[in-house]
Design brief:
Number of strands: 16
CATH topology of the largest domain: Creatine Amidinohydrolase
Structural class: alpha+beta
Shape: globular
InterPro entries: Creatin/AminoP/Spt16_N, Creatinase/aminopeptidase-like, Creatinase_N, Pept_M24, Peptidase_M24B
Mean pLDDT: 91
Order of helices and strands: HEHEEEHEHEHHHEEEEEHHEEEEE
Pfam families: Creatinase_N, Peptidase_M24
Helix content: 25-40%
Keywords: Aminopeptidase, Hydrolase, Protease
Strand content: 15-25%
GO molecular function: aminopeptidase activity
Protein name: Xaa-Pro aminopeptidase
Length: 369
């Protein structure tokens, strides 16, 4: 898939393109309605700006898509951040009383007549909820439909990912400039958060952006108060969001004393090159396993790659999973190479990659040295 030359994105056209893909999928699957609660799926379908929040919430009917009316309905008490194609009458209010919420959803035109309803999440009461909203309707997996629609990225989506990658790289430069003996992991997190906010990305996708792997073999993802010592290696792994799309990268640095990560760095680079070479359309996840082991790195101790777009997406390749996952041209992957030795620490490389017909396009262009 060719990348767009322009960095400008027509977001109205992008939303229309995504809606068209979803309705086409509903037509093919004979799905009369979709009831969605996953943040990525909701954003993909309606394009509304979602509130940043911490923690995990139970499934709730955040967005309802009705095939007969070609309308989208959103759980919202105001229209701030809601695209203009979703009109005020298409909004239904949040309520602490489940009965009131269900009454609002049940009033959506065309939903009660639905015979096949898809959903991307379940709780113990979801089945009874669907039976109240659409009596007699068959409940099916709507998540699979959204996964198929989201898998291959459009040119506009890849442009959004390029911008997110550029923000990530800028944050990496800011964090690298702050590296010195005595700086703490939490201070580096502060540098990262401030920098992405200055660039207009105030809600970072993760706080797992740095750690000191010296002497350890586990890939740690929680920032601590640990202070960096002279000559120690530090993993910097910032990510960023643009228009909901996430990209990121990781590099490993040595602080203070001159030097590099030595043989770990060489092995990590060899692993990354091998994985990138396997990111070709028509390949499968097993090709990445084979590429990794083909450079003598043995069984992978972490995920080798996963889908990327509106946050982390399928497939997940690594730790015994994803061997049969098919790679398609236009898929975007977060690819990572992690090598470690007891007592010597570890080295992490991570790239955001577009799967190509003959070779991948690496969106993160920050140098490795």
């Amino acid at each position: 898939m060719a990348l767009e030359d322009s960095s400008r994105v027509d977001f109205a056209a992008l939303r229309a393109e995504r809606r068209a893909k979803v309705f086409s999928g509903m037509d093919s699957a004979a799905l009369d309605a979709l009831i969605l609660g996953g943040a990525g799926n909701v954003h993909y379908v309606c394009g509304a700006r979602l509130l940043g929040r911490a923690g995990v919430l139970p499934f709730a009917p955040v967005c309802v898509v009705v095939r007969s009316t070609r309308r989208l309905h959103l759980l919202s008490t105001w229209d701030e951040g809601v695209p203009p194609e979703i009109e005020r009458e298409d909004l239904y209010p949040l309520s602490w009383n489940p009965a009131n919420l269900m009454a609002s959803v049940a009033a959506i035109p065309g939903l009660r007549e639905a015979r096949r309803v898809g959903t991307d999440g379940l709780t113990a009461s979801t089945g009874s909820m669907i039976s109240l909203l659409a009596p007699g309707a068959e409940l099916v997996d709507g998540g699979a439909l959204l996964e198929a629609r989201r898998r291959v990225k459009t040119n506009a989506e890849i442009t959004c990912l390029e911008v997110a990658a550029a923000i990530s790289e800028s944050a990496l430069s800011a964090m690298a400039a702050a590296l010195r003996p005595g700086v703490s992991e939490r201070e580096l997190l502060g540098v990262y958060s401030e920098h992405v906010a200055r660039l207009g990305s105030p809600v970072p996708p993760s706080e797992s952006v740095c750690f000191v792997p010296s002497g350890a073999v586990a890939l740690r993802s929680v920032v601590s108060d640990r202070v960096v010592g002279d000559g120690e290696s530090v993993v910097l792994a910032p990510g960023a969001l643009y228009a909901g799309y996430e990209a990121g990268l990781a590099r490993t640095f040595v602080v203070g004393s001159s030097g590099d990560v030595g043989s770990l760095g060489e092995r990590g680079a060899a692993g990354m090159d091998a994985l990138l070479g396997a990111c070709r359309a028509g390949g499968v996840g097993a090709d990445l396993y084979q590429a990794w082991q083909g450079v003598g790195l043995g069984p992978a101790s972490v995920v080798l790659a996963h889908g990327l777009g509106l946050g982390a997406e399928p497939p997940v390749i690594g730790l015994g999973r994803g061997r049969d996952a098919v790679l398609e041209e236009g898929m975007v992957l977060s690819v990572q190479s992690w090598v470690a030795e007891e007592g010597a620490g570890g080295c992490l490389l991570r790239e955001t990659v577009v799967v190509g017909s003959s070779e991948p396009t690496v969106l993160t262009r920050y140098g490795r040295s």
